Amino acid sequence: MTMNAIEVRDLTRRFGGFVAVDRVTFEVREGEIFGFLGSNGAGKSTTIRMLCGLLKPTSGTARVGGVDVGRDPEAVKQRIGYMSQKFSLYEALTIDQNIEFFSGLYGLDRRTGRDRRAFVLKMAGLEGREHTLAGDLPGGWRQRLALGCAILHQPPVLFLDEPTGGVDPLSRREFWTLIEAMAASGVTVLVTTHYLDEAEHCHRLAILHAGRLAAIGSITELREVFADRPIVEVQSTDPVALMNALADHPDVEKTSVFGTAVHAVLKRETDVRRFIAGLGDGLTASPVAPSLEDVFLDVVEQAQSPEPKA
Ligand SMILES: Nc1ncnc2c1ncn2[C@@H]1O[C@H](COP(=O)(O)OP(=O)(O)OP(=O)(O)O)[C@@H](O)[C@H]1O
Ligand SMILES: [Mg+2]
Known about the structure:
Strand content: 25-35%
Largest sheet: 6 strands, mixed
Helix content: 25-40%
Number of strands: 14
CATH class of the largest domain: Alpha Beta
Bound molecules: adenosine-5'-triphosphate, magnesium ion
Distance between the termini: 33 Å
CATH superfamily of the largest domain: P-loop containing nucleotide triphosphate hydrolases
Order of helices and strands: EEEHEEHEHHHEHEHEEHEHEEHEH
Low-confidence stretches: none
Strand order of the largest sheet: 6-7-8-3-9-10
């Protein structure tokens, strides 16, 4: 039977009169990679800090690894690994000293500490660099070391808050290979990112907007927001002009530019073939599946719209 590693019910956090996290409810299964998407200020880090036992919820409950984070934040800290958005390593310490520091923090005995050090150096590809200052490492290496330090105590649940911010595409890919290997071994991972290509690695995603959960599900499930609104991709040498022209088309709900193409979201029940035929000969157009970016923009737009949702 699959168990939930994380269970969140109506979790809320206020700062004075401001509601940073607003009645958020979701669960994450053991071994799942669960992604958090959302604009700046959506409440991702605040939610994670509550789940890590670092910030007290104003109301609602959360269980992580079976522990109620509001009641027993200290017990939660032992069951999780956490890579924070801003700080995760001592840059003035060497790789070895960072590992030693975190081993001490997690209370590992000497022998376990030695074994785990070897494991982390190998996993992060840092063997032979033990005496390099963390601050001198290229971004991708530093993030792998930070990940290694966050899992020294072999936590069953891992929280990664923008672990790949500012890291090059190749290093990001390597980082995700590590995450996927860990999830395959049963570790539950909750990760935030602003890179939508990374979201493809997540088994399920939550989109947060202004403190609220705006959508949740697998990518396939999230694409359902476009179930009865076809998207047509139209190529153009001048996509901005085309976008403006299409925006006035009676069948078009909205448009957005993707490189040299425009995505036109058609109104409900529009006949796609008729729409494409009506565009004229000069344009190359074809129906496309919604990209995650289409989905993200649409979900955020709907969450912003003033009409109350059913
Ligand atoms: N300690 C605090 N006091 C007051 N407001 C706070 C505090 N911490 C966070 N906030 C506010 O709560 C909101 C949510 O912040 P949070 O850091 O959770 O967003 P985020 O989704 O992680 O954004 P980003 O993508 O920029 O990291 C923001 O408006 C932020 O300014
Ligand atoms: Mg954040």
